Write the structure tokens for this entry.
Amino acid sequence: MNRIKALGLAATFGVGLLLAIHPAHAQNPAAWPDKPVRLVLPYPPGGNVDGAARIISDQLQAMFKQPFLVDNKPGAGGLIAGEFVAKAAPDGYTFFMGANGPILFSPTIFKRDVYDWRRDFVPVSSVSFTPLVLQVSPSTPYKTIGELIEAGKKPGSKLTMASPGAGTQNHLVSEYLQRESGARWTTVHYKGNAPATTDLLGGQVDFNLDQISVAQPFIQQGRTRALAVTSPQRLPQLPDVPTLQESGFKDFSTETFTGILAPKGTPDAIVQKLAQALQKILADKSVQERFNVLGSQARAMTPTQFTQFLDKEDKRWIPIIKQANITAQ
């Protein structure tokens, strides 16, 4: 009887030991990844973030010999995807890949405390940066951003700006320009870039801010007129278009970024391993050329650098969201 009990206890102990060992094995950096990894996106297929995710997923799969799956979970300004990853097991097999809005702004704009990037995530690395172009409809008389701003300062200004959605980077730059210049215009929110661009091309709105990859064909065709870019330096695609800094907005530049975050609690060794892989991938010239086609610059940061970057962007834009009382519509 005692021998049977002893065998039973030993078996129980053995099962418990195996259960205790398995999670540790799953999080072993030397073994990671030993099964498919998911990159959860807050957008539908298509667009810059999805395109960037598919470029790096192909490269990561080739490097690690495991599938890196792009999992599109759009909706609620990115909150659906962000909350999903925030609640995922921190085992290195689920990551959040988003942009400025879903990572930093959406919880404030939607007034839903479903996640906070400081509390619920570990920043891994940036992936790409894309500047915006301020462009006007040719039906307007404005040839420079100075002329546009002056029109916005006139009493009863009827200027209109097309936004792809409340709280997007495009919208926040518009709010910044009004705050810094004293100009005023009506921001018309659309459900995405496509309808906003359609109305700009049709002359229903005066101007917008859009990513260079979207704006450039229309500028080249003469269907819109570029007045300024938000990048620190002039863009090679638009060498004659000044930056906002050159146009009087001292020390101001901004770009739409994409980046990857892991659920809080993900082992640091796995975070570092993925970050180092991204640094190698994004430094490759052939990969950089693929991002150039998207109008973006591939640029990786270390986890520490990306954390510092997010902190700076958070402190820069959240006050503007609150001052302008930007909420989801």
In short: The mean pLDDT is 90.
